[in-house]
Records
---
Amino acid sequence: MLLAAQAGLKTAIVDLTEGELSTNGDPLRRSAEREAASELLALATRVSLGLPDGLLGTDGSHRDAVVETLRELAPRVVLAPYWEDRHPDHEAAGRIVREACFFSGVEKYSAGSAHRPRRVYWYMLHHVFEPSIVIDIGPVWEQRLRLLDVYPSQVSPNGDSAPSAINDGGFAEMLRARATCYGAMVGVSYGEPFHVVGPLGLPSLPGFDDSFGRRSNRYQSYV
């Protein structure tokens, strides 16, 4: 999303829940953190649906809310969490978004003008998967690290926070190690893996020009 914003594209985030069940922080603090992150990401808009944290996907109205938002924003590309994850809400979000992207293009489904995004890409949270594509995020790596700094209630240990799976001080190191690993697969410093359902159509084979693949003499896992 940082790369897209830098390229002049309009980007948006839709928060399905307010994260009210999070171990640390409260709604007011979480809202301030989201605003800071939105500014760093240079978002065109950010929408909160206010669906129930911990119960995501348990009611058909949740999918309808996403369909309505897709029709309002009319995105060309949608990013969603991979549908297998340690957090049930993350899994539900991946499923709901995929279903909503389909039904938002069905004229007779609900109200509003039909719109179906061109592609859905699933990003990695906790469970690993075999990546379909890896994006070079080296040019925006420092900005990505700064994004973690604006979520201290979630990823930073402090005196009044309860221990959690991501605030023990090692979360940023994990992200760096993972990005380094996937970057090495395609010959860049840091890479972000995505999963795609079905083949991608390309104008030519990647590698015919210098915009893809090996960068100078950097190590690359695959040749």
---
Amino acid sequence: MLGADEVIVEVKEFKPNKEEQDSNRLMAERGYGTALSHTPGDRLRKKIAGCSAQIKGRTDGKHPSLLVVLDSPFGHADPYNIRVAMYGLEQIHIAVPPIGMGSPHRTGMSYGPKRKMTPKHNTSISGIGRLFMTGPAQVSLEVYHNRFASMPLKHALLDQYGVDQFELEGEMTGITSKWRKIALIVEK
């Protein structure tokens, strides 16, 4: 409960996969690990898919909800990974004119495949919360609001706790929206 409001929260953590475990082992043995490669947002997309039915059942269309993930040292829940997990991988559009009629050129950007949040998918998840270490014994929370949430989380609910909150900027033709920090409400 946040004040008089009920918010459904599911908490998940990223456990190191085999590749990350091997890199950690090598880091301990020789002082450096291996280069890791992954598709941005993949690990978070799996967390969203794994909890969406449970969250939908618990919210019953009446309550906002948060999927809160404990970020790992590998950055699976950094702001970029959250954005592309929710709204899709960024695509650059290139126009290729006929031969001799000019050079290929960029015509814009958009979100593309692998999106988990759409007007018809995962609307019961109001946002993604990111727990991360800010010091040896200090944890912080950031919340990234889902623009397609059927029950949006009220910004004021988290303002009183000093939680940084973000939403996508407004749509602009030819570019992908970035996260914009939501200003806290200051009462005088």
---
Amino acid sequence: MVNLGLFSWFGVAFDLSGATIVAIGVGIGADHAIYCLYRLREEFERAGDFDEALRVTMATTGRAVVLVALAISAGFGVYLISDFYSFPIFGTFVPLTMLTSCVTALALPAALVVLLRPRFMFGARHTTTPARRGQLERPAA
């Protein structure tokens, strides 16, 4: 929605170029979000503490997501100097889309995991009420 709003704000028609840019952003953003979620699950299984798992995930996977978004942005940024009509649009909006999808992929899935406590992350043995910040209650063995 942010990217479509930017298209409208800058007065750029939503044509084939715009649809392609949105598809790139959604696809790469989804890949980043899935990557972050699975890494968060691995770290939570290893550490048993959600805050620690989130910290390690953001320090490792989060850094990788940011670097990939910057690399893609730089690659499309060279289109800014082109005279072909669609290329400067790609050179402007793909980096903006990468920024939006990078921030969203890092922030939204972690927030939804905290809010929803999905079974794929915590398993069925955990309750949905945190015993203390960052940890979940475990039933008696």
---
Amino acid sequence: MELNGLKNLYKSMKNQSIDRCRFEYVNGKGKFDVFFFIDENPFILLFGAKGANFSFEIEVKNGFIIKPEFEEEIYYKLIEFLGVKSNKGNPFKPFNFFLDFNNKIPSTINASNKAKPHETIVYRKDVEEAKKIYFLQWRNNNTSGDNVSKDNLEKTKKLLSVKAYERCKSKNISSCWTDIEEKAKEFYMPA
């Protein structure tokens, strides 16, 4: 299935050098934080169910093509979250969910839609020190004789960007995090 609604959003992101954006999507009773990550290959759509404890990711391949299907567990959580009455004669169809989504994708965004790490971690919790959600700074491990850990690299990739991950991996740099919002710094690429 082609999500042609992503084409203009993608152009808007590229024109503003935004690799990750966030917008809201409403379907029935369900409200979602939707993240579009164009720095990953394939691109990723992350749907975070607001007020519920689940999320799911959809790969977006070249041509904005997706597979309109869900794992069984996600399927049942989703129909419950949406308040859909599914039955054998009229089952909930993922294709229709994505058709509705496609029609509601924003065509443009601005800097306020740029996805922030503390927004992303709500739905990508499986990272080291998950309570530390605010970006603090970079640490050059070469000066201390240490090595960046695999877990830290994974957190950098999931919450910041693939570019930051690659730079940190090649230059032995760790991302540092805090759980104190007032200490948070705006994300910037490591030198």
